[in-house]
Fold this sequence. Notes:
By secondary structure, the chain is mainly α. Helix content is 61%, strand content 5%. The chain has helices at residues 15-21, 24-27, 31-47, 53-71, 85-97, 110-146, 166-191, 210-217, 226-231, 234-260, 288-311, 326-349, 354-360, 368-377, 382-398, 408-412, 420-425, 428-434, 443-459, and strands at 151-156, 159-165, 193-194, 221-222, 268-269, 351-352. The protein has a two-stranded antiparallel ribbon with strand order 1-2. The chain has a two-stranded parallel ribbon with strand order 3-4. Strand 1 (151-156) and strand 2 form a beta hairpin. It is elongated and about 100 Å long. The two termini are 49 Å apart. The relative contact order is 0.10. Bound molecules: arginine (ARG).
Amino acid sequence: MEKLWGGRFKKNINKEMEKFISSLSFDKKLVKYDLLGSIAHAQMLGKCNIITKEEKDKIVEGLRQILKEAQESKLEIAAGEAEDIHSWVENKLKEKIGTVAGKLHIARSRNDQIALDERMYLKEEVLMIQDLLKDLQKSFLSSAQKHLGIIMPGYTHLQHAQPLLFSHHLMAYFYMFERDKGRMQDLYKRIDVLPLGSAALAGTSFPIDRKYVASQLGFKQISENSLDAVSDRDFILEFLSASAILMMHLSRLGEELVLWSSQEFNFIELDDSFCTGSSIMPQKKNPDAAELIRGKTGRVYGNLINLLTMMKALPLAYNHDMQEDKEPLFDTVSTLETSLFLMSKMVETMQINKEKMEEGSRGDFSTATELADYLVKKGLTFREAHKLVGSIVIYCIENKKILENLTLSELESFNKSFDNKTLDILKPQSVVETKDSHGGTSLKRVRESIQKAEKILKKE
Ligand code: ARG
């Protein structure tokens, strides 16, 4: 295969070495961006009279043909055909238009070219991920609207804590994923910077027009320092960091779906289309998609650590180590996109077991805080009230009773300030209603948070 750098060498490259340094098997994913970037570069070279108009037209036409063939899947990019996608494109162009293809690389290096390709690729993928996040939020929002009013046990330490509206729990995920979307929107700004024109590391002596290239390719800014621009992979690291957090969120959700669909909880039933069975136990229905999303979180964390470690001791500017940035990046993008898609569908199609949720929040002492708060309103300090209610709970456990079923005289034996109204506040429904602080779980507050969420989705 023809090398872009053969001139200085007397001997051929070792065959194992040739395979070892090649990135074509994975950077072929960037072919579209490499071609679009090259078209803009050639147009700029023509506009600035660095090449003639005829040369520019030939190069641009050749590149457009390759792009068309690539998009119609008429081109196979086989490993071994070239060292990397940049060499592959230049070789193809030479096959099509002859030696004038050699003028395309004026005032450019593969160092600024790869940084450009990756930025173009990631800009598209980050927008796609934002859309997928939005779909997931829509699934939570419509489920929260549909199931408004259902009460479930809320947990801390995975022990019953206080009753909640199920919709409140769903909306917690809506706002969690809103932060992920915010991180993606924010890091997008730092991807949106054109590195092309930095050349190998120092800039170029040709009279190029970088702003023109930026406007052709839809970049908001151009980079300020050529050395930094070709050394920088922060935009990928930021993406991998935000992705690691996002994947941790999906994993927590996956864990809740696994728990909730177990026989012990039985709060939800996942749709058949996202579960599989067992080859030996005919009764089994396993929450595979939720489990695998939880499981794949490891590789997304790994991709971040991989790249951080690869970058940590590199002197400026480009080093071949940096070729290793692509596989972790591509892997995280595809893992995230599939996980987000499957999660939205799973949340959208799951069946809710209202009876089980409500049954779970009765007789579980989760109204005990309410009872303590009640005594505080009657003049006790919170510590006194806490201690007293603790002894009521022990009384119930020892006598196999539940708080809601205590009689007034039983309550009065603990404290005289209990009255008829006490029995009312011990119902999960009333407890939920009292949590009326901003962001709380009362029906009114959850309605508010749903309305706010609708506005958020409409605004974007
Ligand atoms: N294949 C290389 C990469 O992916 C492209 C840049 C190569 N630059 C160089 N000077 N060898 O990083």
